[in-house]
Amino acid sequence: MKTQILIAALFFSGLVAAQQKKDSLKVNAIESVNIKKQVFKKQGDRLVYDVAASPVAKGTNTFNLLKQTPMISSIDGKTLKILGKSDAIIYINNKKSNMDAEALIEMLKSTPSEDIQKIEVITVPGSEFQVESKEGVINIVMKKNKSNGYNGTLKMQNEQAYYNNPNAGGSFNFRQGKWSGNSNFRMGSWTERQRYTLSNGDATFRNESYGTNDDPNKNFGGGFNVDYEINKKQSLGLSYNMRYNKSFNSILDMTNWQNGKLSDRTVNHEDAQTRNHSFNLNYEIKTDSIGSKLTSNVSYLWFNRDKVSFNESIPLGLDPSSEMYKKNYSALQQSVPQIINNYAANIDFLKKTTKGATWLMGVSYNYTNTDNDTRQDKLIGDEFVMDTKQTNHFIYKENILGIYLNYERKLTEKLSGKIGARYEMTRSTGDIIGKTGFERNYNNLLPYLNLNYAINSDHNLSYTFSSRIRRPRFWELNPSRTYFTPTNYTQNNPFVLAAKFYNQELNYMYKNAFYFNLSYTMVDDAAASDLLPLQGILTTPQKDENGNYIYDAAGNMLMDKIRFLRYIRTNYGKNREIGLTLGMNKSWFKDIWTTNYSVNLAYNTYTGGVWQDPTSQLGPYESEELEPYIVDVKNYNMSATLNNIIRLSSKKDWFLGVNYYFGSKVAMEGGTIGVRQSFDISVKKIIGDWTIVAEGNDIFNQSFYRVNGVQPNGKYNNITNFSYPRLISIGVTYNFGNQKLKKAREMKSANDAVKSRT
User: Fold this and answer.
1) Which terminus, N or C, of the chain has the lesser number of Cβ atoms within 10 Å?
2) Confidence class of residue 321 from pLDDT cuts 50, 70 and 90?
3) Which residue positions does the secretion signal occupy (predicted)?
4) CATH number, domain with residue 407
5) Exposed/middle/buried for 722, CB within 10 Å: 0-12, 13-18, 19+?
6) 10 within some domain
7) How many domains does the chain have?
């Protein structure tokens, strides 16, 4: 920047000297020349936030920096949203991060903001990106100062919610000659506390359940990335990431009422462990001097989650030694392991021409095998006996071949465009061994178009169209249950179909500070974004303590009618959404006060229904009456994000953050989500290489879920999940070493799309 100012000063002083000879009345000196970089601007298919030119980027971490980036928000400190709705997929230097979601967030929180050059927000990604549904992309571009040496970050943080949760982590980067690398590690513990209120029924009956869930977790994780520059044109890299989480003695304790009378108490004890290992080998060769290159990746992912639980329903108000108590007491135990193996490879060729055009051609292949050997035993008499209906060995295999092509160029001085398509061929089989199976073969052509018109220096207009699909997550396919009570439970569904998304967007930007975004999304074969509550009556024969059927004196089999509430994820019909976002990113009073404001308005329609449960497994003499679940929702909703950073000292070492989020009621397929809001405040102090941050998130405990759903036939289902969102934290970060060190080359992983589905 100093060089640019010096050149500009010499240039303008030359003009002044020439003018002085012509007119002695003209000003004969220029004291200073100010050139200010654009902090926020539109470039092609993306919006670019120039972090290096922003006062917000001093002395914080990358996650907090992202929360202050226009169009990006986070209300829970764990996830990032684009335009308040779309899930964000993180790329680093145009390559998708090779980490699971929680590890990625911790990495972002431990990465100094000084390492970041710019942040690119792509609301509708092109064909080259491995994304699904209406996911957007956040591409973090690191600084490229190249020098030998090392640097690192150490961080300790203590969070106080309902329980106290400490955590710590660090990162280390090095560069020496042709070798470069980085590594990171994280460890911590947290106990999550949730309070539930559940109610369902109609005019003739009602069920209520009240209780809490305490879920303790201990985890550690980390990884490394090593890159070797074979020569000026070729590079070879290897990356590895892992994460381990242990959650033992998680307890769900619910008290249940029926028609206003105390019924029973359900207690569920759960032990779970999750292990995740991923490897990626990358090779890159530059094919010319103007940026063309060939990149290839080979990846392997191993994911394992073991869960065992014991669930018992204890009658209340009865003598434990009585026959009625023994008849109404029930218990079951579950083992729900899941193992995922994924093998993937891809090759990309980027070709740039001397006329300014860019071609991108690529092919990718993913093979995934998931093994879910679920066992459920129920108590009959004094022994646990296998429940054959809920014991399933489910094996799911999936092959996806993708071919994609993009062409991008500047059409005129003001108009540029990008066009592309992605062809995906999916072959999958599901086998519930000994029971049933299915085979799905489908092909998808996913076109993409972006046109960008720079009207002048103050006005920019762009249009984007994209088509995507959303495949079900692997855990959604595993046909197992998770119980709140014996008759109130979630049921996974192996028969969910992939949903088809068609996204359009019109974006206008004024003076690189104010933006307007209009979007329209169509979804066919839509699956509920949350679980759909299906109510019904199961008619089942009565059995004695030995499992034998019971008959009356006339020889008729005695039957029980049991009401149930079964939450499942399944396809229901169509979804349409129109969204409008108005936003502003601007600094005031010589960068003392920086604002990032946005308002999101939306109109949604959901139409369709569920008339049968594809997961029902009926035994001999059993029958099920399922109430149809009708989806007919039309809804206006809005949300607003107001982020403020105030510099408190002229030395730029004290900062105050004041943020506010508001979300109106939102009607969705499963019911209406209540108003949510969050008021956050933070104070940051920079002392050399040390940064101390004190934060209070959701100070008034207003960011929790309340869902109310009513069907046309009068049946209702209400859920309140209060997760104690108020969080007070103190964090200390220390940066050491050469802070201008260039990081190792980030590498794209061939199995990126699969990681998001684990």
Assistant:
1) N
2) confident
3) 1-18
4) 2.40.170.20
5) middle
6) no
7) 1
